[in-house]
Every structure is written in structure tokens, then in C-alpha cells.
Design brief:
Strand order of the largest sheet: 7-6-17-11-12-14-8
CATH superfamily of the largest domain: Fumarylacetoacetase-like, C-terminal domain
Low-confidence stretches: none
Largest sheet: 7 strands, mixed
Order of helices and strands: EEEHHHEEEHEEEEEEEHEEEHEHEE
Number of strands: 19
Helix content: 10-25%
């Protein structure tokens, strides 16, 4: 892993942006000498200039940090203006969902000339690393989904795919928790365009655990070659690699930025591979511990209550 990571930690008066160097964390505003960098959004809104300042500051071997082990880490982006989530972006996941729902699998969208598609999660559905997710009273079919998350660092509009990764500040881990039993409106016909409820199943409190930190994009040469894994109570459930995506992150950024501007701090969840609970007929219950791990980034753990 490279020279530093970006994190939010809980200070005396609320979350503060921090810079992790080795086993220590430093207050970003103090290290960089400006109150503009007291928040993660402040850092990202001045990216990539901030990246240069951080490199200079870390090269001076600062000594006024405190042990990372003593920090109460918060989600690394509080709060993004948007969370875009790629749907059905791993072929094996699309196949397992089609089988579980008893319907034919759709044609490969990329091979047939299709485009990436995304749904939204509410920004305040973000949950901290280590947080307890109080969702079993809301959903009886609570599902897990490990995903690579990209954090935007520059305004992006009409960005071609070949330049899209230049607009990424860094990467973190995400769990796209889903309330599968709330995905359909039973009062609407299955043939109705209003049958599905993406808000109810995807945007409840705690539905988007993020963290534990942001690894700068320069430290991850290829986001399409990262292993990603998920365990429930230490039992392996998902084990794949981002190379199995149908649409790459660059293609997703290009598609999203055609119709809207992506802003610093916006988060893109890039899809999940096979192994979700729905495909197994298993769902999360109170007391379950969900751990995800993405190569070169780290581990994110949450407890379901």
C-alpha cells in the first residue's frame, strides 16, 4: 500500500478528516495548515491540488499524529451528494438472480450494445466501519453485496472512458445492503412499471456501509484487477475479482457523466459478484457479523442488530 490513506475520524466536536500514515492518523486541517481541509469533502473539492499538498506534508515526516488503533473511524465520505450503484454488473450475479427469480437470463448487455445502468442510494444511508446496522426489524430478507466503491475527485461531465479514471480520487469498500422483501410493491401488478421499489429496498438507514478509508487512485494502478471477498460470521459467501465486471468503472463514469455532472465526493458502487444471500436462500439476522475485504484497500466489518 502507498504512502497514505484518507479517513474520517470522530473528533471532540464531530467527524474530522484525517490522513493515515503508517500506523498513525493525523488531523488533515492541522497537517495541511488550512481549516478548508477539516472535512473530507473539503479535501476532495480541492483535489488533485490537495493530493500534492498531502504528498509534501507526508514527506516531511510529521510527528503530531496519534495511533490509528485509538481512532474511532467514521465512513470516509460524510455525506456524498450522490451514491450511484451499478446494477447487474457481474455476469455470474445476473445469472444467479435470474435463476432465483425463475426467469430467463437477459442477453449480455455489453455484447448486445447496451449501456451500464445505475440506481441511487440515499446519501444518509451511509454507515461507518464497525457500526451496528439496525435493519432486521425493517427487513426479513436482508442481503449482503460486496462492492468496489470509487470516490470522485474532480467534476466530471461528458468524460470519455479513456480519461474517466483521471477523475477518481480514490477507492474504498462498500456493502450494498438490500432489503429483498421490500423490492416489490404488492399492490401494483407485476406487469406495471411501478411494481418495483428501489428506494425501499436500497435506501434504509445503514444500507451503505463504507470504509474503512480511501486509498488514493495512484496507489491502485488497475481497479479492474482487484480481488473482493465477503464473509458472514467468518463463513465465505462471495469471492471474485473486479475483472469479472460487465462494464468497467471507466465505462460507468463515461455513461453517468453524459447526462449529469459527477461532483467531488460522489461515490460509485461498481456492482457485486455472485454469492449474495438471495441466490442461496439465506438472509442476515440479528447478531451476524459481515466482513468484506478488497485487495489493496482493506477490510470493512459491520454487525447486524
Amino acid at each position: 500500500m502507498g504512502g497514505y490513506r484518507l479517513a474520517n475520524y470522530q473528533g471532540a466536536n464531530g467527524p474530522r478528516a484525517g490522513i493515515i500514515i503508517g500506523d498513525s492518523i493525523f488531523d488533515a486541517a492541522k497537517l495541511l495548515g488550512s481549516t478548508s481541509y477539516a472535512t473530507m469533502l473539503g479535501i476532495l473539492e480541492d483535489w488533485p491540488r490537495t493530493a500534492d499538498l498531502i504528498q509534501t506534508a507526508t514527506g516531511s515526516r510529521p510527528s503530531d499524529g496519534f495511533p490509528l488503533a485509538q481512532a474511532h473511524l467514521r465512513a470516509p465520505v460524510l455525506w456524498p451528494s450522490a451514491i450511484y450503484c451499478a446494477g447487474a454488473n457481474y455476469r455470474d450475479h445476473a445469472a444467479e438472480m435470474a435463476q432465483r427469480l425463475g426467469r430467463p437470463q437477459d442477453p449480455d448487455p455489453k455484447a448486445s450494445g447496451g449501456q451500464p445502468w445505475h440506481f441511487l442510494k440515499a446519501p444518509h444511508s451511509v454507515a461507518d466501519p464497525g457500526a451496528s446496522i439496525a435493519a432486521t426489524g425493517y427487513s426479513k430478507k436482508l442481503d449482503w453485496e460486496v462492492e468496489l466503491a470509487a470516490v470522485i475527485g474532480r467534476p466530471a461531465k461528458n468524460v470519455p472512458a479513456e480519461r474517466a479514471l483521471d477523475f477518481v480520487a480514490g477507492y474504498t469498500c462498500a456493502n450494498d445492503l438490500s432489503a429483498r422483501d421490500l423490492s416489490k410493491r404488492l399492490e401494483a401488478s407485476e406487469k406495471s412499471p411501478f411494481h418495483f421499489d428501489w428506494t425501499g429496498q436500497k435506501s434504509f438507514d445503514g444500507a451503505c456501509p463504507l470504509g474503512p478509508w480511501i486509498v488514493p487512485a495512484d496507489d491502485i494502478p488497475d481497479p479492474q484487477d482487484l480481488s473482493l471477498k465477503l464473509w458472514v460470521n467468518d463463513v465465505p459467501k462471495q469471492d471474485s475479482n473486479t475483472r469479472e465486471m460487465i462494464f468497467t468503472l471507466a465505462e460507468q463514469i463515461a455513461q453517468l457523466s453524459r447526462g449529469m455532472t459527477l461532483y467531488p465526493g460522489d461515490v460509485i458502487l461498481t456492482g457485486t459478484p455472485a454469492g449474495v444471500g438471495t441466490g442461496r436462500g439465506e438472509f442476515l439476522k440479528a447478531g451476524d457479523v459481515v466482513k468484506i475485504e478488497i485487495e489493496r484497500i482493506g477490510t470493512l466489518t459491520n454487525i447486524i442488530v
